[in-house]
Design goal:
Length: 385
């Protein structure tokens, strides 16, 4: 696609970007060191932290019809046997606890910390064995320190790349299209290609100037996380992740226009580009998001329209995803109602269909491919604190 060609990161650009970021980080470190040496803080001036977060509980009901070669089932004429998964009820949860705080020094710089704990992950043991329900990944989601001032903001630690964090997505009143996979495993409507999500990285964002903001981030590969390689490993940075992004927000004709463009690169052939646009006027918001992921041969387009009037919001969203010749589409109608500050009751009705989706059963040489179509309805309670 044109966007991917325009933003294809070359070896030369990677070298320039790496030197720029290292120089910025070194200058920031020297500046911070000089500030601490010149004006040591007392215990009373130390950063104090608070607790915030959210909890969302979903109850859903889905019905999915599948057709194709599944478990070798065929009728007398050798045609694929259609199967039905109906009356499937389930509960899904998503919650996080955030510990965060900041302190503005006499020099004018602001220092801060943020640690996010996953409320539905229990982590894994050292041998990789799961220790509880939905125990994929770490209990600690993100953990980073940051410093901001007139120069912008510098972040060091485990956080998302700028290609993801600076993206302008599509608003909705209920469940996000990307969350539908909690009830529809076949649906793959992701917004961004955020490789090494929440991995350790260095992030720099400029101040917003005339509505524009730019960002760059760098995350070392897994072998470099501890600053050394194991015996026999080659000391390279071939798996490092680089990301650049820009967004803008402008008032126009009584409304607001927001645009974003991001690019991410991991290694030689893993590139992805995303674009987002959002226009708001009164209580009406229209949005469009596009992603081209060369690393996984995936292309995604999502569009949405939302209207809000006081505590009530309603929305319609539609997404189309194509990956390695497999096409998936999903449409959703949602509503949300704020019953108390930070407390929203949500619901979503969605329908999805896919062609040639590989299910879990089967082998690489003889994959089990099925088509599916289905509907679902979920209700949820979202509480922020």
């Amino acid at each position: 696609m044109i966007l991917s060609v325009m933003l294809r990161t070359t070896d030369k650009s990677l070298f320039i970007m790496r030197n720029f970021l290292m120089t910025t980080a070194a200058a920031g470190a020297l500046a911070c060191g000089g500030i601490m040496a010149a004006a040591p803080a007392s215990a009373a001036d130390m950063v104090s932290v608070g607790i915030s977060g959210y909890m969302v509980q979903w109850v859903g009901f889905t019905s999915i019809e599948e057709g194709g070669y599944k478990e070798g089932k065929k009728d007398a004429d050798g045609n694929a046997v259609e199967t039905q998964r109906e009356g499937v009820a389930d509960i899904r949860s998503n919650s996080e606890v955030h510990v965060k705080g900041s302190l503005k020094s006499d020099s004018g710089l602001t220092f801060g910390v943020r640690i996010e704990f996953e409320g539905n992950n229990t982590g894994v043991q050292a041998d990789g064995a799961e220790t509880g329900y939905k125990s994929k990944g770490s209990v600690i989601d993100e953990s980073f320190a940051w410093v901001s001032g007139e120069f912008g903001r510098l972040t060091i630690g485990a956080d998302d790349s700028v290609q993801s964090s600076m993206h302008t997505g599509v608003k909705n009143a209920g469940m996000d299209l990307g969350e539908v996979r909690m009830f529809f495993p076949e649906n793959q409507a992701y917004y961004t290609a955020n490789w090494q999500a929440d991995n350790k990285r260095v992030i720099y964002m400029t101040p917003r100037m005339q509505g524009f903001q730019f960002g760059v981030s760098y995350g070392p590969g897994a072998n470099e996380n501890y600053g050394h390689q194991s015996d026999g490993d080659v000391a390279t940075n071939d798996g490092d992740t680089w990301s650049i992004a820009a967004n803008t927000s402008h008032d126009f004709a009584g409304g607001t226009v927001m645009l974003s463009l991001g690019h991410i690169n991991k290694g030689t052939d893993n590139d992805a580009t995303n674009f987002g646009a959002r226009v708001s006027m009164g209580g009406l918001t229209a949005g469009l998001a596009y992603l081209e992921d060369d690393g996984s041969d995936r292309e995604l387009t999502v569009a949405g329209l939302m209207y809000s009037d006081g505590p009530l919001s309603v929305s319609g969203n539609y997404g189309m995803n194509s990956q390695a010749g497999k096409d998936t589409s999903i449409g959703m109608l949602s509503a949300g109602y704020t019953v108390a500050p930070g407390v929203v009751v949500k619901s979503s009705l969605f329908a999805s269909e896919s062609e040639a989706t590989q299910v879990n059963k089967g082998t690489a040489d003889d994959p089990v491919m099925v088509d599916f179509e289905g509907t679902g309805f979920v209700m949820g309670l979202a509480i922020g604190f």
